[in-house]
Amino acid sequence: MQSSEKYMQDLKQWLRDTADSPMEEMSEFFTKRLHDYEEHMSVWEESYQVFAEVLPLKCQKILDLGCGTGLELDKIWQKNPDIEVTGIDLCAGMLDKLLEKHPDKPLTTICQDYFQYDPGYDQWDAVISFESLHHFLPERKKELYRKIYCSLKEKGVFILGDYIACCDEEEELLRTVYLNKRKQSAISENCYVHFDIPLTLEHEKDLLQDAGFVIEKILDGNATIIIASKWTRFPFPILQISTPCCIMIDTNKPLYSRKPLPLWSNITYEKERNPTMSVYSITFSPTGGTQKVADLFAGSFCPDSVYIDLTDCETDFRSFSFCENDTCIISIPSYGGRVPAIAVSRLRQMKSGGAAAILIVVYGNRAYDDTFAELQDTLTDAGFSCVAAVAAVAEHSIMRQFAAGRPDAQDEKELADFAGTIRSKMESGTLSAHLNLPGNRPYREYSGVPMKPQTGKSCNKCGLCATKCPVQAISAADPSKTDTQNCISCMRCIAVCPQKARHVSKALLAAGSMTLKKACGGYKKNELFL
To answer: What is the three-class DSSP state of 306?
Structure first.
C-alpha cells in the first residue's frame, strides 16, 4: 500500500502538472465522459455491492444523490427489485442511460442540483450517495446533511461512499488550490465545477454528527463507506469508538441527544466545553420549521446540546430533571398567537431545578401575539429562569407560500449572532434579572383552526401518521379516522405521509390564504429580547 508521504508527493506533482488546466463545469464534464463512465467506475464494483448489503432490511424508498448511471442501484435492485428509487443528478445524459438500463423498475429521475432539491420530511428509508459529495465545500455539505437528516424516517440511514482525504495536509492543499483556481478564473459561486476537495474521515464524521446523525459503522475497503443513522432518541453520552468504528454507548443514561460538532474554521476544530453547564434543546416542531430554527440557534450557542422532542407521545417528560447550572433552549411554534396546549402540558411535567431558559418563538410571518407571554408564564411557573428570547420566522406550516424558504441564509446569520450575544452575556453575568416580553394577559382566545387533515384514496394504512401525531388524534387501527376535536391542525400527518394521502380542503386553504395575504406579506425580521 502506498504510504501517505509518497501519496502526497505524487499529489503535489499532479497539481503542478495540471496547474494551467481549466476547471470544467460539472454536468459538462460528465456528459463528455458518458461513453466510458461505467468502465472507468468499475473499479468500485465491490463498494456497489456493499451498498446493497447494508441497506435496512425493510427498506422500501431510497433517495440517491448524484446517482449517475446507477451503478450502485444495479446491485441494490439485484437484491431487492421492488425498492422505489428517486435518483437526482445534474447530468441529463447519465439519467437517460439509467432509465434505459432499468425501464421496468420503480424509478423516478430528477435532473437537478441536489442542494436545491427539497427531500421532504420523514420520507425516506435510506438516502445514498457514492463518489459525489467530495466536490463540494463543507459549508454546503453541512446544510445538505441537515436536510437529509430531516428527510429520513426514524432509524433511516444515510450511506455515504466517498473519496476521503488521507490527512489534514491533503484536505487543506486541495481546498486551497480549488479556491485559488475559482478565483483566478472568476467562476461564480453558483457554478459547480469538477475538482476534488475531500475531507478527512474525522471532519466528514464531524459534519454528519453536527446534523444529528449517529455513525453506526465505517467500512474502509475498496472505498470508504460511512453508515450514519437517524435516531432522534438514543442513549448518551458516547463513551468510546472501537474498531470498526461502531459506537459504544452507556445504556443506563436514557437521554435524547443530538451531538453536533464545532463550526468549520480554517481546517481547525476546537470544542468549547463548560463542565458546569449542560445545554438542552427542547423543541416542539411537527413539520420541521421550528426544528430548523432551533438547530441553527442551538448549533451556534453550544455544539454539544442535548435534544428533547416535545412532539414524542411515547416520552415520559416527568423523567427530565435539570439544575440551576443548566440552560434549556425551548423552541415553540406560535399557533394562533398562543403556545400549543400539548407543549404547555409537557413543559410543566419537567423538573426545572431553576435552569435558565432561552425562549424561541417561531411564527409563519403573521404575528406571535401572546405566545411569548404564555410561554414565559408557563416556564416561570415551572421554576425555570427566563433569561433571553428570540422571535424567528419560518415557512408557514399550512399555507407554505408565506415566508417560503425561511429560515434562509440571512436568518441563519442572525440566529448565530443572537446565540453568540446571549451566550456572551450569560457568561459575563450581564443579562437583566427581569426579562420583559411582548404579549397580553389574559391571553387572546384560540380555539384552533377549521383546517383538519382528511385522508384520500391513496392511503395504504401504513399507520405512520398515527405514530407521528403529537396528540394521538389519528386512529392506529384505521388511519383514515381522525379525532377532529383532539387534532391541533399541526399538519405533521401531511408532512410525513409517504403516499401524499393526507390533505386539507382546497376551499379552506384558498379562503385562509385570502384572509392572511395582507397580514403575512412582506419580509418580517427576527427579534432578540434581553
So the answer is: strand
Which H, E and C letters describe 447-513, residue by residue? CCCCCCCEECCCCCCCCHHHHHCCCCCECCCCCCCECCCCCCCCCHHHHHCCCCCEECCHHHHHHHH
Report CA torsion sign: 283, 363, 149, 206: negative
At 227, give phi and psi (nearest 5°).
Answer: -110, 110
pLDDT tens per residue, range 94-111: 999 999 999 999 999 999
Average pLDDT over residues 462-487: 91
* SS3 letters across 416-459: HHHHHHHHHHHHHCCCCCCCCCCCCCCCCCCCCCCCCCEECCCC
Q: What are the C-alpha distances in Å from 185 to residues 20, 120, 154, 188, 223?
A: 11, 36, 44, 9, 32
Count Cβ neighbours within 10 Å for each residue of 216-248 and write b for 16 or more, e otherwise.
bbbbeeebbbbbbbbbbbbbbebeeeeeebebe
pLDDT band at 266 (very low <50, low <70, confident <90, very high): very low
pLDDT of residue 143: 86
CA distance 434 to 344: 22
Rounded-to-integer distance, Cα 60 and Cα 440, Å: 49
359-397 residue pLDDT tens: 999 999 899 999 999 999 999 999 999 999 999 999 988
Q: Are 502 and 477 in contact (CB under 8 A)?
A: no
Q: Are 326 and 358 in contact (CB under 8 A)?
A: no
Q: Residue 396 in 3-state DSSP? A: coil
C-alpha count within 13 angstroms, C-beta hemisphere, residue 288: 21
So what's the pLDDT on residue 334?
95
Q: Identify the three-state secondary structure at position 34.
A: helix
Q: Report the side by side order of strands in the sheet with 214-220.
A: 107-111, 84-89, 61-65, 124-130, 152-162, 224-229, 214-220
Per DSSP, the three-state class of 238 is strand
The residue among 394, 422, 211 whose CA lies nearest residue 299 is 211
Query: 84-89 and 385-393: which strand pairing?
Result: unpaired
Q: What is the DSSP string of 266-294?
A: TT-------TT--EEEEE--SSSHHHHHH
In the chain, % of residues over pLDDT 70: 90
Q: How far apart are CA 498 and CA 461, in angstroms?
A: 11
Q: Determine the pLDDT at residue 237.
A: 32
Return the residue matching grid coordinates 443514561.
Answer: 253
> In this predicted model, what pLDDT tens digit does every residue of 156-215 receive, in sequence order?
999 999 999 989 999 999 999 999 999 999 998 889 999 999 999 999 999 998 888 888
Give the three-state DSSP class for 153.
Answer: strand
Mean predicted lDDT score pLDDT of the chain? 86
The answer to whether residues 362 and 490 touch, using CB atoms and an 8 Å cutoff, is no
Residue 233's pLDDT is: 39
